[in-house]
Amino acid sequence: MQCVACQSKIDPGDNWCSKCGEPVRRSEPDSERRFVTILRADVIDSTGLIAELDPEEAVSRLEPALVAMRGAVRQFGGIVSKELGDGVAAVFGAPIADDNHAPLACHAAIELVRRVAGLGDAGLQVRVGVHSGHVVAYMVASEFSKVYEMGGPAQHLAARLEAAAEANQIYVSEACQALAEGHVRFEFLGGKLLRGFSQPVPVYRIVGASDLSSWRVRRARSVSRFVDRATERALLARAAEGAGATRQTVLLLGDAGIGKSRLAHEFAQAQKANGWRLIDAECSPNLQGAPFSTLKRFLLTALDTIAKGTESPTDPRRNLPEIQQCALDAVLDVPISNQRWSELEPHARGRAISDASCAVVAAMARRQRTLLLLEDLHWIDRASDGVVAAIASLPVPGLLVLLTTRPNGMPVWIARCRAEVVAMRPLDDDSGLEMLSDMLGSSATNADLKSRIISHTANVPLFIEEVCRGLKDSGTLRGEWGDLALVRPIDELGIPSSIQGVIAARLDRVPKQERSVLQVAAALGARASEATLRNISLLPEDALRGCLVSLDRAELLVRIDSELEDSLEFRHEMVRQVTYESMVEKVRDDIHARILATLESDESRADEPDTLCYHAVRAKDWYKAFNHGRSAGRKWLGRSAFADAANYFEIAMVALDKTPATRMREIDAIDLRMEARATFIASGQVAEWLDLGKEAERRAGAIDDIGRKVAAMTVRAGAQNFYGAPVEAVAIGEEVVALAESSGHPGWRNLAQYGLGQAYFLAGRYRGAKEMLATAGAHLAGPAASAPIGTTPQSLLVLCCMMGSITHTVLGEFDAAEQLQREAAAIADETGRPYDRVAAAYSGGWLMLGRGDAAAAATVLEDGFVLAQKHGIRLFVPVLACHLGMAYLEQGLFDRARRMLTEAREEARAVGYTSAVLRSSIYLALATNQLGDVRAAQNMLREARNTARQQGFSGLEAEALFGEAVVTPHASEDRTMILAALRAAIAIASESGASPLREKAEAMLNSMLAGGDQLA
């Protein structure tokens, strides 16, 4: 950016040219998203004030208040975006970002009320509303003027706060209060019902400005201790030693949040303890436009320090020439009656002020070693800037001048005073982890979170602290500082509002062309290649290279790994997020469309459909999003990453429904749901699996497609086996098998037969299940084996063998079960698919339990359980856990059995797997009984038996009845109950063919009868 008057280079954050002093004129900004603070103010009952006045008189009546409002807004760096006749709408933090936008807006509001009250017109009373939030900022040009306008809900909340405020009061939102707390004093007014808002809105009233310095505000919020900075502390210590011979000046340079103030104050306090006099002051963004405001703060601090010192207090002004005393009085706002001072030219007055200030500092340094700490030079007022330059160049021993500034505030005179510039860097990983351990605690359970925070913040201390604070305030972390526990998963760490402005202000220093490259990189993700940026940015080669060099130097987009010279990544994720979120939707859509076109033309990206899907969705190219989402779903399904696959299939479904409605679209929508079912099945999303079938069936009916209706009904029937009662599953299963056979779709027929066999099994119709599963298995093992979309004949055959082996085991036909189990295991070994291996492990464990080898069963089931969890095959997790618990129970490991069966039941409930809930409850009751809680075991079994009877799970009803007989004490009064349960179990098992269960029940019954009980 250049000054329009003298063409000197100026920083985007400067308000005036450092060479000629002309105000900076900025070009019109593009539309963009901004996090800002909005101020709304108006004159109360303005209509009543001017209703009967002539137009010119009306304008004259209100104009003084409007002039006062404009002046207050501009004094604190705001922009009047709109005048409303009797008030103004103003914005702080745009078009150039400022991390102090909320405190500045609050101070402007206080000044606005003060100025209007100072007009002496009792009829002019104002009310003010202030709110911080996201807006879309854009320039609106009319025939005669241009207005910087804000759009979005934030404007409306500011207006509602203004309307609710009382006369000469300032109401602010909770968001604004959180950002300005410490800089301004507030009173909480509770929740207020504002027009247009359905719920009460927390409202605060400003009661005054705080006298706390920015450092004190930050220090009061800090929850971490000072760590590391050994290199910087050594440099400062060396400068302190050198100050004994001559004045030393050190400038700590770094972006906001890097730790400049923390280091400076830690060092200053240590020097004070070593006998140094400390004079600390700071430049204020609130007073940047007030001449000598920084110098006044410094002089007041210096005089106060001298007055409180252990030496006899001597006012250093006494030995100064009369004119210099007047100069200091002028800075300190002391009335001056000296005629000579009144007659001095402005330049001579400025020289006298500089000389007097230097004399005061020199006198203090001669009496006692003095450390002058002046913070935030980027906010220094122009008049003080020259005086500080003179002080920093004083040839006086015993003086150490320590300054802090951001990169955009580097003084032009710093080289003249031979200062040592210390560029502050982020912490190293070890120091970042030390800081996190201090805040979160040393527990290993937070290790992953700490690593994510380190990566997210790039070890910038303020960012680390604010992210942790945000997690604690939201309840994601619970406990006390130093001992916090993560209580729920975190998808994204996000960007706390307290540091959005910090990052946005840094990005605003980036020229427009470099900003456009940064935006493309942000849309690409955390890492990008130079070649991709070249194709998408549309910049000439030299221009792009220049932008990348500048961005690397600014540590925004940096080159990584010497072996990958073409790769670039964001210094930390927060910069990428703020860059991305600053773009308006239209700009984002266009960039993602360009990225998508570039990536699609690159053949090496053919195996990255997930990346293409991401950009297609962001570009709102819905048909491409459907195609790439489906491809990504297939990719991850092929890799047995079922949850990821389900996510991409869902994206594809949503995207397809956003394309124009045609018959072809409906066909694609049905086929997509049929293909996607496997991912929802494996990941245990049973309700969603059922919905896929229902929705596909509805769409197939609407276009009168019988073949696809059969497919959809088959999917719905399969889900019904897990989600509902067996009677419903059997009814729809029989219907769909008949339809599939008659409609000539062998693949769907085979799947429907497998599903019906499973339904028969759940209903306790084991002989029917055996026959139906054998029929399906024969079709799948034959030369014309066929399977529907989304699976293969081999994988479907594994399931048939699994279910067949389990059925034969329940029937007591162990040789047949063994044959099917071997076949399932062989296919699983051949395919290597985790899903097939888990299925084979499940039936293998069931068979070994049936044969009484609980230890071998536990080994097989443990392997399957681990594999299912590793690959997210959640549908099998509850049944594997249940049978593993049963194996532990058979081995007498009752406590382990109870834990595993409890987990199985909870997981089954979460998945919606009805029969697994019942079976795990039955065997959990048996484990509970073995551990001595007979009453709880009886209650569980009674509830399971009643539920199984009501819902038609006759096989599980028989198991529950037998369990009741086992856990009921054999006292004389309970024998009738036990015998009844056993006889009922025998009757059901006999009817279903469950020989092992029948034989166990008969053996127990005969044992009791042989003991003398002759009840009929």
Automatic annotation (TrEMBL):
The keyword Nucleotide-binding applies. Keywords: ATP-binding, Nucleotide-binding. Residues 37-162 form the Guanylate cyclase domain. Pfam families: AAA_16 (PF13191), Guanylate_cyc (PF00211). The keyword ATP-binding applies. It comes from the Bacteria. PANTHER family: GUANYLATE CYCLASE DOMAIN-CONTAINING PROTEIN (PTHR16305:SF28), TESTICULAR SOLUBLE ADENYLYL CYCLASE (PTHR16305). This is ATPase. It comes from Bradyrhizobium guangzhouense.
